[in-house]
Design brief:
heterotrimer, A alpha+beta (359), B mainly alpha (751), C alpha/beta (343), A: 359 residues, alpha+beta, Rossmann fold, OB fold (Dihydrolipoamide Acetyltransferase, E2P), six-stranded mixed β-sheet, five-stranded antiparallel β-sheet, elongated, C: 343 residues, D-Maltodextrin-Binding Protein, domain 2, 2 domains, eleven-stranded mixed β-sheet
Chain lengths: 359, 751, 343
């Protein structure tokens, strides 16, 4: 199977690329990035952050208005989509409704210099990879959503593109199918060693599939790194909050010794890695799971009151009033939850909270 | 070929194929076309027709009447053609260069731009009488030579240069370097310029020409402000108003009435429990496939001085019959009959397009049926009303047949234009002035409508399934609506009975015995030893009409859809003026097209009058806006990611257009085909100016019969046309139906 | 069907040229015809049959044809201009657009036809003529209890109010001939008084010259002022039309023919010219119900055709009333003084 479909995985490089629409809409602002061959890189960010534009510039569906784009060693900045060795899986799948599954998958091959038998063989091989060999003669409308999605993947795969692009490929699937398909995509990518660029606004999906994640915000890159790095060591408040939610609390750094900073929030003192910050105002980002609540406060804790308690099955979600505003906390203790109005002691767990520059 | 060399490495094959220079063969093709035009094909138009090929044996290639440009120049004649060799040489030199070389684009643009400009300049500068402009004459002295209309040689060179120019632009990186899209834009712009803007501008100019062929503004104003155009005698108590006011009043009334009736029929068809609405729907559409003035004839047979109804009423009440039908009432009745169906087709789309869930939402918010209609349904239909009014207005302005037959002393612009050209005055300037007035009315209405609608888009079709059901009309509305609809439909039915009856009686009103002699005169066929001989008088114009309609229809559809594709799918500088240009032809009445075409294409460089080509062209540009609209409507329902995915799969935009867009647009294509075929069969207003003995169209033949008092033959011919069109439309509709089902099934689940 | 003949001729042409190195072009000519379509067609077919010369024909009104010949003067494409009222033919002769030619058949023609030729230096010739008059629908006249008119002045009677139709002289040559006739018959002042009186009785000024009698034929109008041969045509077609030659006398038109100067096929043009003056060619008119009086005295005439000999014809001054200055002046006067009056 994999001897029919090969990989020509190439790197992707953006050098100070910008995309401007008209006079004053800046969709992508001077970004530079490097994508290693045979990796899966996710562009993550809220809608309107420029991630889809970035993807479409790799595809050649948008032409950059500034900077250079290289695929492999080749400068493709001005090359239209047709002439780039890139395939894309669309959010809507964009299967051609008037063609059978096999015709859909063969479509690109017929423009790539293959003869009829080769085209057919390759298309069938592609369908086998996604497990749809038996559906070749069906029309797209006769398939389920998940199957259609896999046809779209097969159609893009068989061209052995230097880069394979996914534009929110899972957003039309239900939650269960989403998990299954994203695992399949990851398997195929790793099995064939493809370079994949993947756009999503779902941070969980991004964390699950990616080798690296590029978080985008307001047409620029907010942070780039491996999933764990982004989750555990965000470099700014936006990333901290966008990936896995965080309470962002203004704090004061009293002193820094080595890599460790002593901070205080009101009367509450805490010690955590300094991450290069110096004494002065800063922000501490605390994930809800790292907020600890106890019914009997000790003096070094923050005094807090439960203002909202929600049962969501696997855990409890609390909104807690504190002297410096409401905090969001979760607790695994579901059998004996706190009640609204109850006075609590609040502290942050030793590892987890991250110090960020003042926002 | 490449594959066999390197089959061990498929990757290499693919890369070669994908990064290969796709544009190269196209470039060479157009260069060859250019040389062919310059070296091999007769440069000038051949009087006896190119395809008679007589020129091949009549002194070709040396006789300057038939010679290719190269041979003419080589003989030392018409040396102004010589510079055209330069751009051809320059572009040929480009072949060796890679596309990425900046010189590639620069040479292509500069050379072909120069070539095109030179072609145009020499074409307009030197005409039948040598220098066309006194200024040139005084500058260079008497030329002592002249030239005729351009022929296939010139056409090939022009087309070649145009596409080489667009390839140069594409190589510069415009539209992502997409050769197909740039060429498509270039050719649509060139076509619209030559066949819409140029004739119109030419007509504008001829309005300023005095009798001694000099230009004068005064002559324009004296014609323009003539009392016969703008007089207000009828208001001031005098005896009649100016022609312009007559036309305007008629068009506004017809626009309002057709819109109202169109709405009424649309409501009956979609929101009533009326039993016979299918039959009624069929009946209301019938006038679309009827040559317009035939309705006028039937009205005379009913309401004329000796008409059936008139005499009956006169006998009944013992009054003198009058000629009341001649004039405003007659034209208005005939036009409302003729144009209501178009308004209906516009309105039904809009009435059906109002999302039922909005109406249902209003109902759940405790609005009564009447309040729902008044506050939700009706306001949402407003854009449709504006569209329907505009169409009725323009059709009425352009209508020629009905005023001719029923006008009486009520003069309107379209007939005045006609008689300024063919009448005893033979005053082209006058015709041009009248045409300008007509054009300003329709353009004014066009703009007013766009201005009024502004950005109020009430499209409520979301593409998502709307499970709701349209509520039926409230009682206080449905009773009068059904009453009007049934009444008008009944009237239409009577008119059509009159038409059929009129074709099978000897001499209407005098000798009502049954006969088929009119059909025999028109369509008799003699079987002889050497096959069938078409002896009927109508066959010639009948076949010409079918032929021209059949040629024009696919061209119209193709141009319309291509334009729609460019408008919906591509972004380029100047797109909004491009859109304006393509939509402009919609607001130009056929009469104006006719006048401007004979003014523009009667003389070199483009001599087209008297050919079949000019008829085809007039239909294509008159009807293309319908193709554009149909295309835009269905293309905006196709997800753009379909073409994008095709592009990322390595297909270029031409492949995408052909393999993805076109197959999915079949319904729109067929709609455009049907419409342009039918209009080409029934159109009168432009045709009447452009027909010639060799290319006579059915409608102008019928008008000739009417003028000759030969009503029987005219009506028999029209009846035949109606049945022929029913057949054609039916056949096409069958095809439409089949594809539509396939498509609905396949896209339905996709969304 | 047409394609097949195309194909056939081009194959024939190929075969012919294969046998002889220089293909001899068949005799051909281009005819500009300004008579009615079917008459033009009949003339063309009969001429082709009689001589074997290929004719391509363009039918346009005489005004249009005149303009076309003028536009093509430096490169004439037509050879013969046949039919249509005499004024534009005379004007073309005056402007030197047509060539002088004296046919051997001229002797067979009536005097009025020859005098048309001599007045223009043989650059045009009369081929038929028709007198102005009017016709009325006998049934309508009776139904309305109207008396039968027989003179121009009868038409001024108040009883005919709303019963008379004529064409608009601005758009129709027939109606201009009417205006010029009345002016010549009664003098300009009285003539215009007549037109004003007539105006009160007119129910519609039609665009085309023959429309008034056609609508009278169909019972849509009672009296129509037209050329008498047009009225005769309706009567022959079976309509209840009676033709009247006004008692005061009347004007007439002379349908003409001219050879276009510097045409491409002068021999063929003369062959057509000669043939068109023959009795057989002029007799053809009967087949298409053209009831004009033929110029060839030997040509057959219809018994229904008006007999010019029995009609009082005025001495119509073609050169004066055909000139564009006089035409403009009269039309303007009519526009200003007559057409604005209430009806």
């Amino acid at each position: 199977m994999s001897d029919t479909i090969n990989s020509k995985a190439a790197s992707v490089r953006f050098e100070q690329v910008s995309k401007r629409y008209g006079a004053d809409v800046l969709a992508v602002d001077n970004i530079s990035l490097d994508i290693e061959p045979s990796t899966l890189v996710t562009l993550l960010g809220p809608s309107g952050c420029g991630k889809t534009t970035t993807l479409r510039m790799i595809a050649g569906l948008e032409i950059a208005t500034g900077g250079r784009i290289l695929i492999g060693d080749k400068d493709v900045t001005k090359l239209p989509a047709t002439d780039r060795d890139v395939s894309m899986v669309f959010q809507s799948y964009a299967l051609f409704p008037h063609m059978s599954v096999l015709e859909n998958v063969s479509y690109g091959l017929s423009y790539s210099g293959f003869n009829k038998t080769e085209t057919r063989d390759r298309a069938m091989a592609g369908l086998d990879i996604v497990g749809l060999g038996a559906y070749a003669s069906r029309l797209p409308s006769e398939l389920s959503g998940g199957q259609q999605q896999r046809v779209a993947v097969a159609r893009a795969l068989v061209l052995e593109p230097q880069v394979l692009l996914f534009d929110e490929p899972l957003s039309n699937l239900d939650a269960k199918l989403r998990r299954q398909v994203r695992e399949e995509i990851r398997e195929i990518q790793q099995g064939l060693g493809l370079t994949v660029v993947y756009v999503t606004h779902d941070q969980e999906e991004a964390l699950a599939v990616s080798d690296r994640i590029i978080v985008m915000r307001n047409a620029a890159i907010a942070q780039e790194g491996a999933p764990r790095e982004l989750f555990e060591a965000p470099t700014n408040a936006f990333v901290a909050d966008f990936i896995g939610e965080a309470n962002l609390i203004p704090c004061q750094i009293d002193s820094v010794t080595g890599d460790t900073a002593n901070i205080h929030i009101g009367d509450y003192a805490h010690t955590l890695p300094a991450r290069g910050l110096t004494p002065g105002a800063a922000t501490v980002a605390v994930r809800p799971s790292r907020v600890q609540l106890v019914a009997n406060p000790t003096p070094d804790m923050i005094t807090a009151t439960i203002s909202k308690a929600t049962y969501v099955g696997v855990h409890m979600e609390y909104t807690v009033d504190t002297p410096f505003g409401p905090l969001f906390a979760v607790s695994g203790e579901v059998d004996d939850p706190f009640t609204v109005g109850q006075d609590m002691g609040l502290s942050f767990s030793g590892s987890g909270p991250v110090l960020l520059p003042e926002s | 070929m490449m594959r066999s060399l390197c089959c061990h490495n498929k990757t290499l094959v693919m890369q070669t194929a994908r990064s290969g220079d796709v544009g190269r063969p196209v470039l060479i093709f157009w260069i060859i076309i250019g040389w062919l035009g310059f070296l091999a094909l007769p440069w000038y138009a051949i009087e006896d027709g190119f395809f008679a090929f007589e020129w091949l044996f009549d002194g070709y290639p040396f006789d300057t009447d038939y010679a290719p440009a190269a041979f003419i120049v080589a003989q030392g004649e018409k040396l102004w053609l010589a510079p055209l060799v330069l751009p051809l040489l320059a572009v040929t030199a480009v072949i060796g260069r890679p596309k990425s070389d900046p010189l590639y684009a620069t040479i292509l643009i500069a050379a072909s731009g120069f070539g095109l400009a030179w072609l145009v300049l020499q074409g307009f500068g030197i005409g039948l009488r040598g220098w066309q402009f006194g200024m040139l004459e005084s500058l260079f002295g008497d030329l002592g030579d002249r030239q005729f209309g351009m022929g296939y040689g010139a056409l090939f060179v022009a087309v070649s240069l145009l596409f080489l120019f667009t390839q140069g632009i594409a190589a510069r990186g415009a539209i992502n370097g997409d050769v197909f899209v740039v060429s498509a834009i270039g050719s649509v712009i060139a076509l619209i310029t030559v066949f819409v803007f140029f004739p119109i501008a030419n007509m504008l100019a001829s309005a300023f020409i005095t009798e001694d062929q000099s230009y004068s503004i005064a002559v324009f104003f004296s014609k323009f402000f003539d009392d016969r155009l703008w007089g207000l005698g009828c208001v001031a108590g005098g005896h009649r108003c100016g022609v312009a006011w007559n036309s305007l009043f008629l068009a506004v009334s017809v626009g309002l009435l057709t819109t109202l009736l169109g709405l009424v029929f649309a409501l009956v068809a979609t929101r009533s429990g009326f039993k016979y609405k299918r039959a009624m729907r069929a009946l209301t559409v019938l006038p679309i496939i009827t040559p317009p003035f035939v309705i006028g004839l039937a009205i005379i047979l009913l309401f004329g001085l000796s008409g059936t109804v008139t005499t009956f009423v006169a006998d009944l009440f013992g009054v003198q019959p009058t000629r009341w039908i001649y004039g405003l009432p007659g034209i208005m009745i005939a036009q409302v009959l003729a144009f209501t169906p178009v308004a209906f087709l516009v309105m039904i789309g809009v009435v059906e397009g109002v999302s039922p869930s909005m109406e249902e939402a209003a109902q759940t918010l405790r609005a009564s049926k009447w309040e729902v209609f008044r506050t939700v349904s009706f306001p949402l239909m407003r854009p449709g009303l504006a569209n329907a009014f505009l169409i009725g207005f323009i059709e009425s302005m352009a209508d020629f047949g009905n005023p001719l037959v029923l006008g009486g002393n009520y003069d309107v612009l379209s007939t005045e234009i006609f008689f300024a050209i063919v009448g005893a005055q033979y005053d082209q300037g006058q015709a041009a002035v009248l045409a300008i007035v007509l054009l300003s009315f329709t353009l004014g209405a066009f703009y007013a409508q766009r201005f009024w609608l502004g950005n109020k888009s009430y499209t409520t079709v979301s593409g998502k399934g709307d499970a709701g059901v349209h509520p039926t009309m409230p009682k206080m509305l449905s009773v009068p609506v059904i009453f009007i609809a049934v009444g008008w439909a009944g009237f239409t039915a009577v008119i059509y009975c009159m038409i059929v009856a009129g074709s099978v009686v000897e001499l209407w009103g005098l000798n009502n015995s049954l006969t088929f002699k009119h059909y025999a005169t028109a369509f008799s066929v003699a079987l002889e030893d050497n096959g069938v001989r078409w002896t009927g008088a109508a066959w010639n114009s009948f076949w010409t009409t079918i032929q021209i309609a059949a040629i024009a229809a696919p061209l119209t559809a193709a141009l319309g859809l291509l334009t729609a594709y460019l408008l919906t799918r591509q972004n380029f500088a100047g797109k909004s003026s491009f859109e304006f240009g393509t939509m402009l032809s919609f607001a130009i009445p056929g009469t104006v097209i006719g006048v401007s075409y004979i003014l523009a294409f009667n003389v070199p460089p483009l001599e087209l009058t008297g050919t079949g080509i000019i008829l085809v062209i007039s239909f294509v540009f008159r009807n293309m806006s319908v193709g554009v609209r149909a295309g835009i409507a269905s293309m905006s329902q196709l997800d753009k990611s379909l073409d994008e995915s095709s592009l990322t799969l390595g297909a270029n935009s031409w492949h995408t257009f052909r393999r993805i867009i076109l197959p999915l647009l079949k319904p729109a294509i067929l709609a455009a085909l049907v419409y342009s075929f039918v209009t080409a069969m029934t159109a009168v207003s432009a045709v009447i100016f452009l027909v010639s003995a060799e290319y006579d169209m059915a409608t102008s033949y019928i008008i000739g019969r009417v003028e000759n008092n030969d009503y029987g033959l005219a009506i028999a011919y029209s009846t035949t046309l109606i049945f022929v069109m029913l057949l054609v439309v039916g056949a096409l509709q069958l095809a439409v139906g089949r594809t539509a089902i396939g498509r609905r099934k396949s896209t339905g689940q996709q969304s | 069907m047409m394609k097949r003949t195309f194909l056939a001729t081009s194959i024939a042409a190929v075969v012919l040229s294969g046998t002889s190195t220089v293909a001899v072009a068949k005799d051909k000519m281009t005819l500009y015809c300004s008579a009615e379509e079917n008459w033009c067609q009949l003339m063309l077919n009969s001429f082709e049959e009689a001589t074997g010369i290929d004719v391509s024909m363009t039918r346009k009104s005489s005004g249009e044809t005149f303009a076309q010949i003028k536009a093509e003067a430096t490169n004439p494409k037509g050879d013969v201009w046949w039919g249509g009222t005499g004024d534009p033919h005379l004007q073309a002769a005056e402007e030197g657009l047509t060539a002088a030619y004296v046919s051997e058949n001229r002797s067979e023609l009536a005097d009025w036809a020859i005098s048309q030729a001599t007045s223009a230096g043989d650059k045009t010739i009369g081929i038929y003529s028709g007198a102005l008059g009017y016709g009325y629908n006998t049934e309508l006249l009776a139904a309305n209890g109207l008396s039968e008119p027989s003179c121009w002045k009868d038409l001024l009677k108040p009883e005919y109010k709303g019963h008379v139709q004529m064409a608009n002289p601005n758009s129709s040559g027939t109606a201009y001939t009417t205006l010029a006739t009345i002016v010549q018959l009664f003098g300009e002042d009285e003539g215009f008084e007549f037109m004003k009186g007539l105006h009160a009785n007119i129910n519609q000024y039609t665009k085309s010259g023959s429309a008034p009698i056609k609508s009278a034929a169909r019972g849509e109008n009672t009296i129509g002022i037209v050329f008498m041969h047009d009225a005769v045509k309706q009567a022959v077609a079976g309509f209840p039309i009676k033709v009247v030659a006004p008692c005061e006398g009347t004007g007439y038109e002379i349908g003409s023919m001219s050879i276009i100067k510097d045409g491409r096929n002068p021999e063929s043009a003369q062959a057509f010219y000669d043939w068109a003056l023959t009795a057989e060619a002029q007799t053809l008119a009967l087949q298409v119900n053209a009831f004009q009086v033929p110029a060839n005295t030997g040509a057959e005439t219809s018994p229904s055709a008006p007999d010019l000999a029995s009609i009082k014809l005025i001495d119509y001054d073609f050169s004066k009333y055909g000139s564009s200055a006089e035409r403009k002046r009269l039309l303007k006067k009519w526009d200003d003084e007559v057409s604005v009056l209430p009806q």
